[in-house]
Design goal:
The chain is an alpha/beta fold and about 375 residues long. The protein has 13 helices and 13 strands. Helix 4 crosses helix 7. Bound molecules: 4'-deoxy-4'-aminopyridoxal-5'-phosphate.
Length: about 375
């Protein structure tokens, strides 16, 4: 706390990202990074961009990247917005579409990406959370109601559960009549969900938000994008251009465009992640763990023996980092990112054989 902070900054509760360890080597299963390297074409494109051109500002309109996205998703470049990670695109979207004076509260799930309430706080947007069902599914009826707009991830985080497109479109349709936006955060869509991006032509209030951090192995590059009707995209540009016109640098623009265009490479590595996820989920169930069915590159699990905080600490002591959220309903769960088969075997080994983790000492 500093006396120089203004009232707005004093009242914020900022997001706390997962640990990025600096001086100890961990098996890192805590921030949903991709365990496989980016496409060689991405590295090549970045190397090419790392030259004389850095003297000059990057293209503020991010044309090359937007054209690559438009081509891949079969939309128009005017229906694409690019930003410095999807977190930035989300922050701009909250500022652009939610919090009108005449509107009710923004709706999002009680268990979801913990940045949403932070953005709402930053922009002063009133919100109400809608509880997930007992089994952690999103109940779309809860979002077919008058409100100030809706946002949820599909698949949801940190549960990994996904929703069929038809359920999402029913919310889009309802909110379209209400004159409100629906944002679907598709950060994990490549690992098994059904994208709603192709439906933006039918729903002018629907915005899907995407990241290159997970499926494209580029968390370190910081690039994300949104797909939606031209009016929504122009709204995002208005916020960006009232903040920082050059949010993506030349290296990020070149690398991100190359990644978007190399679908075959990424299909290959992400298929491997899905196979590992299914194998690890089955093995954990055999050990008595509860495993929520996941369409993402992580699983959400509960030990039959150990409280979430205890298991998190025991794994950390043994060199494995996972994510624990000390929050109502999910305090006994851990979110475990899917790593290589080797990483996951080390994790399973500990869960199955380490007496302290497995809880055998307590039972005996
Ligand atoms: N949405 C969800 C649901 C996420 O889990 C994350 C990753 N923390 C993001 C968006 C942001 O990803 P990035 O800013 O790296 O694109």
């Amino acid at each position: 706390m500093s006396k120089y902070w203004n009232d707005r900054i004093r009242s914020l509760s900022p997001y706390v990202p997962g640990e990025q360890p600096q001086n100890r080597k961990f098996i890192k299963l805590n921030t949903n990074e991709n365990p496989y390297p980016p496409s060689p074409k991405v590295i090549e494109a970045i190397k090419k961009a790392a030259g004389d051109g850095l003297r000059l500002y990057p293209d503020p309109a991010c044309r090359e990247l937007r054209e690559a996205v438009a081509q891949t998703y079969q939309v128009k470049p005017e229906q694409v917005f690019a930003g410095n990670g999807s977190d930035e695109v989300l922050a701009f979207a909250f500022g652009a579409f939610f919090g009108s004076r005449d509107a009710g509260p923004l709706l999002f799930p009680d268990i979801t990406y913990s940045f949403y309430p932070v953005y709402a706080g930053l922009w002063g947007i009133p919100f109400r959370t809608v509880p997930l069902t007992e089994d952690f599914s999103i109940r779309t009826e809860g979002y077919r109601t008058s409100c100030g707009g809706v946002i949820f991830p599909n698949p949801n985080a940190p549960t990994g559960r996904s929703l069929p497109s038809k359920d999402i479109l029913s919310v889009a349709e309802y909110q379209e009549h209400e004159g409100r936006a629906l944002i679907v955060d598709e950060a994990y869509i490549a690992f098994g969900g059904e994208s709603a991006a192709s439906r933006i032509q039918d729903h002018p209030n629907l915005l899907t938000i995407h990241t290159l951090s997970k499926a494209a192995s580029l968390a370190g590059l910081r690039a994300g994008f949104a797909i939606g009707n031209e009016g929504l995209i122009q709204g995002l540009c208005r916020v960006r251009d009232s903040f920082n016109s050059y949010t993506l640098d030349r290296l990020a623009l070149a690398g991100a465009a190359a990644a978007v265009l190399d679908a075959p490479y990424y299909k290959g590595i992400n298929r491997k992640i899905i196979a590992t996820r299914e194998r690890v989920s089955a093995a954990l169930r055999c050990l008595g763990f509860e495993v929520i069915p996941s369409s993402a590159n992580f699983i959400f699990i509960r030990s039959p023996h150990r409280a979430g905080a205890e298991l998190f600490a025991a794994l950390r002591d043994r060199g494995i980092l996972v994510r624990h959220f000390n929050k109502p309903r999910i305090a006994d769960f851990l979110r475990v990112s899917i790593g290589t088969d080797e990483d996951m075997d080390a994790f399973l080994d500990l869960c199955g054989t380490d007496p302290e983790l497995h809880g055998l000492t307590r039972i005996l």
